[in-house]
């Protein structure tokens, strides 16, 4: 049988500590050349949705984890637009499937090839991003970090909140995003998920001023972290490369990325000429040489003792979550699958629907 | 609703002429930069199946066809071994899912992003390969070709048979493969699919000696077509690059490949160091320069008049089907989907199973 799960079922059993554990174990395997992630492939072409022009994007990435006996493929089929909101260009996916988005995950058995589980990717994705930044904090932030600043109140911000509160004794989280209604809603909806007290503040400055950990989880394509915010002992964390610029990173004592491997970090993008994406090449992370690049270290090497992290309570540290990896989905999906089997959750579909008695 | 189809349902409605038409139209679009195929991604790692060591492979490729409003992703999750059979190394996929193989296709709407159809890939794959070689014959073989030689009697051979008989007035097909039982079985099972008479012959030489079209559809990793077989006016066709070597191709008057684009023809392969595959780099098709390479032309350019094909009935022509493309699956799946909707075939699954109300 192939298990079909919903986001609600996943949410009911997936604790952030399970995700932290799954991501850490699988990334240790990857750092030891015992697990792998594929390059991500993005294909883009012009489309028409309703009566409006947009860009269609089909994206996939996969990961294999032999020790756990599983592989996974994550697929996103999106209708994209790049509107300018408050002077900033942002990337939006339209909920064009009658108000919904199309993103799924297939977990395969490496022993039989067959699909073990099919699920949406949203909840798993949020927590694997959160857990990755959370693991950076587990290895890099001061152990007595009690105040967290969170800039951004979208979907990813929730994952960041849960993961950071799970790895450090956070008592207060100061939450900022430009729209007061979004901040208020975020604090109201997420308060029950963590023990720390969520406080809605009205400027980024107010959020960061006495924080021990500063986390950004925004849609911005402009840098968010500022050099003038740097204070001794603080850990800075970003969900994507655009949020931190080179001058900021140069001023931080120890800087980590998720991966520097061009294979996994440079997506294979194929697009028709008629597609113009504002998120073209460029930015400091494209310049893979020089002193600034050399001092960047890879997070998984910290897990296996191949990189040096924080040495004292005065150093500043930073983590840039620069890439999504198929292996993250593979590891978290395996945990979800085991848990769902144990709890007898999900809908059983005949595996024969997805297999065949011939091979091409 | 998302339509779930079986191979039997696909077989009941998919005629080779529909596939020829779909592949030709979509490849015209591709040659005109109005459709695209992604790079294929192969990920390999060691696995254990039952108690035996093998290699697990997760492979995916995608295609987008804006004019038809659809995109498709084809996924194969295989357990591979490379046994030596009769002195030749061959690549086998094990039917490790209780006697079955895992290969599927998802067709997406470019207007909404949602999955329109899920199906196995076997029947569609056979006919898209067959149709691609068939189109080469439609454009390159003599119009009076009446005798066909078919070397190979496996799954792909059936597709080659149907496609070539659809594009030329073939009256006789001489079938050879090393195992007499396989030849006999092939002729018995496939005879009803074509008007031409299938004749089981006991040597490759006997098959090719008076053929107007010579087609190979083998598992061989060694060249099959021979320079000494070349006769004026004959069209030679291969389902993969290994079947034709450079000396053979150099002696043919006009040679076509499916694609010379490194983006689609060089798979992105990621594998753990512990995986050793006999099908490593090498072979003439890896040498992308020099006179031999320059004289190779791309088949889709023939469809749009950008390449010169046969000029007279004395020339020899050859086609090497060097790559599988996501766009082939996209185009054929769209035809299957339209036909299934018209005939009300297939099982309707709720699209909400594969979509979500959040986006990561």
Q: What's the topology here?
A:
The structure is a homodimer of 360-residue chains.
Chain A: E1 2-4, H1 7-13, H2 16-31, E2 36-37, E3 41-49, E4 52-65, E5 70-81, E6 84-85, E7 88-89, E8 92-94, E9 102-109, E10 115-120, H3 122-140, E11 147-151, H4 155-167, E12 172-176, H5 180-190, E13 197-200, H6 204-208, E14 213-216, E15 235-238, H7 246-251, E16 254-257, H8 262-265, E17 268-271, H9 291-294, E18 297-298, H10 299-303, E19 317-320, H11 326-343, E20 347-349
Parallel strand pairs in A: 1-10, 3-17, 11-12, 11-14, 12-13, 14-15, 15-19, 16-18, 16-19
Antiparallel strand pairs in A: 1-20, 2-4, 3-4, 4-5, 5-8, 5-9, 6-7, 9-10
How would you describe this protein?
- 2 copies of one chain form a homodimer.
- Chain A has 360 residues and is of the alpha/beta class.
- In chain A, 30% of the residues lie in helices and 28% in strands.
- The first copy, chain A, has 2 domains: 2-124 and 325-354, ornithine cyclodeaminase, domain 1 (2-Layer Sandwich); 130-267 and 294-320, NAD(P)-binding Rossmann-like Domain (Rossmann fold).
- Chain A has helices at residues 7-13, 16-31, 122-140, 155-167, 180-190, 204-208, 246-251, 262-265, 291-294, 299-303, 326-343; strands at residues 2-4, 36-37, 41-49, 52-65, 70-81, 84-85, 88-89, 92-94, 102-109, 115-120, 147-151, 172-176, 197-200, 213-216, 235-238, 254-257, 268-271, 297-298, 317-320, 347-349.
- In chain A, strands 1, 2, 3, 4, 5, 8, 9, 10, 17 and 20 form a 10-stranded mixed β-sheet that branches.
- In chain A, helix 2 packs across helix 3 and helix 2 packs across helix 11.
- The model of chain A has no long low-confidence stretch (mean pLDDT 94).
